Automatic annotation (TrEMBL):
InterPro entries: IsoCit/isopropylmalate_DH_CS (IPR019818), IsoPropMal-DH-like_dom (IPR024084), Isopropylmalate_DH (IPR004429). Binds 1 Mg(2+) or Mn(2+) ion per subunit. It is an enzyme of class 1 (oxidoreductase). The lineage of its organism: Eukaryota, Viridiplantae, Streptophyta, Embryophyta, Tracheophyta. Residues 46-395 form the Isopropylmalate dehydrogenase-like domain. PROSITE patterns: IDH_IMDH. It holds the Pfam family Iso_dh. This is 3-isopropylmalate dehydrogenase. Belongs to the isocitrate and isopropylmalate dehydrogenases family.
Length: 407
């Protein structure tokens, strides 16, 4: 924690020159420079980096170098600005999302977040929790659509706790509503009931426009995938879910080519481990999406592999690995940077429309896994155990080797 806090301090003092603050992940930068020099940048994007807490700074450092290299090969130049967020922002300026961080994020073309949170701030009051900063960031950027893919890679099928025949070939996408529902609904708070007993309460509420817009994102997503959408709710009990289902059915009229089904959330939780291959695209509310996307991630074997994209109808998207800050392994060079690297690929694809650069990164990750490199969380016998930095260097080598292939 101390290291990430001091890193933040440096960044705030020099917000304009963040590119030189992180140690390069690769020990062989000359090849990178060479590649960058041969392609004249034609496009420039500004990216806000929010390293955050725990393993966040380590994985963001790797992703930044991968972005730089993949970008340079596609004539793209990035201007990175690192800003404090989460626990490290709390230590630095006393709030989990400083105004400067939100305004920098809003002005940029895309935002890449590492992870936030840690034991140190767990007992803080709610408005001083790192998680509150993340919710404020999602709200501030109005990123209502959270895409969380869960793909079982053939290289990692043995990392799944499910039987091989159940896990292999799983390729699903959870589309989670991110700025509404019980996370934000009012009234909320603590109080006393008529018996004088203390209570805590929240409100699950959705308006028409909120369900309609997330449903449209989900139908569009399903259309680009395998054309199947399953809407998950608890419409047998909750009014908010009955309403959700009614609106999803109404929007479905615009997408006759997409096959729509509905499932109660308890059944969906069961089906995800029973037969996950039945799912293509899942759309659900904020809290069910939070839970089901963690469950879906475990089918793939490691939460350390899974990226996410949060998108609004305009403005920059927010891209982050779905894993947390893992304070127990922070600053030990043990973290798996691949979820953040793949989040950078989602940033290119969904945030900037730079599909070629995104593909380069995705291919490089697959090649690195094919070569047998594994961090501890995805390690199995016969492979090569590496740390966060070395994994990053190997991904860089694979991105770089695609130059030769492209020439
Ligand atoms: C997630 C996390 C967050 C959430 C927390 C950290 C606020 O669990 O992104 O899934 O509940 O949305
Ligand atoms: Mg979660």
């Amino acid at each position: 924690m101390a290291a990430s806090a001091s890193l933040m301090k440096i960044n705030v003092q020099h917000p304009i020159k963040p590119m030189f603050l992180l140690k390069p992940a690769s020990q062989k930068p000359s090849r990178i420079r060479c590649a960058a020099a041969t392609t004249k940048p034609s496009k420039r994007y500004s990216i806000t980096l929010l390293p955050g807490d725990g393993i966040g700074p380590e994985v963001i450092s790797v992703a930044k170098h991968v972005l730089n290299l993949a970008g340079s090969l596609e004539g793209i130049e990035f201007n990175f600005q690192e800003m404090p967020m989460g626990g490290s922002a709390l230590d630095l300026v006393g709030v989990p999302l400083p105004e400067e961080t939100l305004s920098a994020a809003k002005k940029s073309d895309a935002v890449l977040l590492g992870a936030i949170g840690g034991y140190k701030w767990d007992k803080n009051e709610k408005h001083l929790k790192p998680e509150t900063g993340l919710l404020q960031l999602r709200e501030g950027l109005r990123v209502f659509a959270n895409l969380r893919p869960a793909t079982v890679l053939p290289q990692l099928v043995d990392a799944s706790t499910l039987k091989k025949e159940v896990a292999e070939g799983v390729d699903l996408m959870v589309v989670r509503e991110l700025t509404g529902g019980i996370y934000f609904g009012k009234p909320r708070g603590f109080g006393t009931n008529e018996d004088g007993e203390e209570i805590g309460f929240n409100t699950e509420v959705y308006a028409t426009y909120e369900v309609d817009r997330i449903a449209r994102v989900a139908f569009e997503t399903a259309r680009k995938r395998h054309g199947k959408l399953c809407s998950v709710d608890k419409a047998n009990v909750l009014e908010a879910s009955m309403f959700w289902r009614k609106r999803v059915i109404a929007v479905a009229a615009e997408y006759p080519d997409v096959e729509l089904s509905h499932m109660y959330v308890d059944n969906a939780a069961m089906q995800l481990v029973r037969n996950p291959k039945q799912f293509d695209t899942i759309v659900t509310n904020n809290i069910f999406g939070d839970i089901l996307s963690d469950e879906a991630s475990m089918i793939t074997g490691s939460i350390g592999m899974l990226p996410s994209a949060s998108l609004g109808s305009s403005g920059p998207g927010l891209f982050e690995p779905i894993h947390g800050s893992a304070p127990d392994i922070a600053n030990q060079d043990k973290a798996n940077p691949l979820a953040t690297v793949l989040s950078a690929a989602m940033l290119l694809k969904y945030g900037l429309g730079e599909e070629n650069a995104a593909k380069r990164i995705e291919n490089a990750v697959l090649e690195t896994l094919n070569k047998g490199f594994r961090t501890g969380d995805i390690y199995s016998a016969g492979n090569k155990l590496v740390g966060c930095k070395e994994m990053g260097e190997e991904v860089l080598k694979s991105v770089d080797s695609q130059v030769a292939a492209a020439v």
